[in-house]
Amino acid sequence: MIKKENVFLVVKNVILEILPDVDTNNISIEQNLRALGANSIERTEIVVLAMEQLGIKLPLVSFGSVENIEGMVDVLVENS
Amino acid sequence: MTTITANGVGVVGMGIVCSIADNVPMFSESLKNGVSGVTRLSPRKGPTLSVDIAAEISDFSFIDRLYKGPDLPMTLLRKAKNCAQRSPFPIQTSVLSALEAWENSQMCGWAGDPERIGIVVAGENTTQNYKYTLHEAFEANPEYLSPRYALQFLDTNQVGVLSEIFCINGEGFVVGGASASGNVGIIKALQMIQLGIVDTCVVMGVVADLSPIELQGFINIGAMGGKNRCQEPKKASRPFDVLHDGFIYGQASACIILQSSDVARERGITPRAEILGGAIKLDGVSTSAPSAEGEAHTMNSALHNSGVSPCDIDYLNAHGSSSPLGDHTEIEAIKNVFEGHTSKLWVNSTKGLTGHCLFSAGVVELIATVVQMEGGYIHPNINLDNPIDTGLRFSGSVVEQRNIKMAMSNSFGFGGINTSIVIKSCS
Question: Is B86 touching A (CB cutoff 8 A)?
Answer without folding.
Answer: yes
